[in-house]
Amino acid sequence: MSGDQIMDAPALRSDVAAQARRTATSRPLRVAAIGMGWWSDVLADAVVRSGKLEIAACFSRSEGKRGAFAEKYRCRAASSYQEILADPDIEAIINTTPNDVHLETTRAAADAGKHVFLDKPIANTVAEARAITEACRKAGVVLALGYQRRRESQFRWIKRQIDEGALGKLVNAEANISRDRLGKVDLSSWRYTAEGMPGGVMLQIGIHYADVLDYLMGPIRAVSGSFVRLVLPGDNPDVASMILEHENGALSTLNASYASASEFYLMNIYGKDATVYYDRHTGMRMLRRGSDAAMQIPFSPNDTFVEELEDFAKAVRGEGTPEVGGEYATRSLAVVRAGVLSARQGRRVEVAEVLASDGRPAEGKAPAARRATRTRR
Predict the structure, then answer these.
(1) CATH of residue 183
(2) CATH code of the domain covering residue 59
(3) Adjacent-strand bridge partners of 349
(4) Model confidence over 120-179: pLDDT tens digits?
(5) Residue 239: its pLDDT value, please?
């Protein structure tokens, strides 16, 4: 063998390391799903569509639910969460457990060196949200939050128009996110109780459009809220409204409802030079200053669930950071918490006030062993 064909040892090690990195980034991210329910299946279906992640195992306290999930997604049904955390082949956790056990389950994952994809909201209190964020930061693992609505193609298009100055100075926005839950409420489910989902419909689905408004209009500074229960049984608001004051001076209104006759989504963004209108039934239109007719703007639906999971997988592989991480998700939670406090006390509430004071742990929580794997949806 000639001298120029001989690779020196450092170069060989470098080549081997580079090949190992390429192999690691090309193989699917091996994940485990915890908290079996409707939403765990939504995300698992997206994992299958993606092909860039692989469900290796699952766990729920319900043997029947974890068995059914394992059969459907051809993964291993673990006998305990600890079994999943001890498995070195599992790289990350998709966590769809109830809000009040997000801290417990995520901290355990972080301590075991597992990255975490966590469904919104990050927690029920700011204190727990910060503890989740810090646990993942300290452990050096990726934390990503599931805020898929902001990824919808119509909102990405609007964001580009705003960034390019097409709308001019932003002045106002109005949003509505509504679903019909009449006759569909299970009062034994944590998500329909004031303890399990404080803020009711606004924390459950309204937070998505609060996020979109923050994404498009800019950070939210203060909130005035009103929350009521009008149609559904139980102790939690099924209709909620918030007036949002953005840091740039613009105002937004956000309405969320579980008591409407049908599913409906609306997002209108008003600028000094142009306005963009979007709703579920008529699509998206743009009206420019000086024009009498709005232009129809075509757009194609995109797979937001696949996008957010692949974004997470890339971050785990060292290719960037998640679009929504713990710090932003904590502030997003604080916006809704400010609305809840405003409705309770009948006053305008600054988000900074909630960030500074919100976080008293809920009293009367069930022991951890009983709560850690309840069904999310």
Answers:
(1) 3.30.360.10
(2) 3.40.50.720
(3) 223
(4) 999 999 999 999 999 999 999 999 999 999 999 999 999 999 999 999 999 999 999 999
(5) 95
Please give the tally of structural domains in the chain. 2
pLDDT tens digits for range 220-229: 999 999 999 9
Residue 183 pLDDT exceeds 70: no
What is the separation of C-alpha 144 from the centre of its chain, rounded to a whole number of angstroms?
A: 8
Q: Among candidates 76, 82, 38, which has minimal Cα distance to 58?
A: 76
Residue 118: how many CA atoms within 13 Å on its side-chain side?
A: 33
Question: Cis omega before residue 98 (within 30°)?
Answer: no
Alpha-carbon distance of 362 to 42, in angstroms, equals: 29
Tens of pLDDT along 283-295?
Answer: 999 999 999 999 9
**In angstroms, rounded to a whole number, what is the distance separating the alpha carbons of residues 70 and 59?**
9
User: With contact defined as beta carbons under 8 Å apart, do 243 and 253 qualify?
Assistant: yes
DSSP secondary structure code for residue 293 in this structure = S
Give the whole-angstrom CA distance, residue 42 versus residue 266: 23
Going by C-alpha positions, the residue among 199, 200, 146, 154 that lies closest to residue 175 is 154
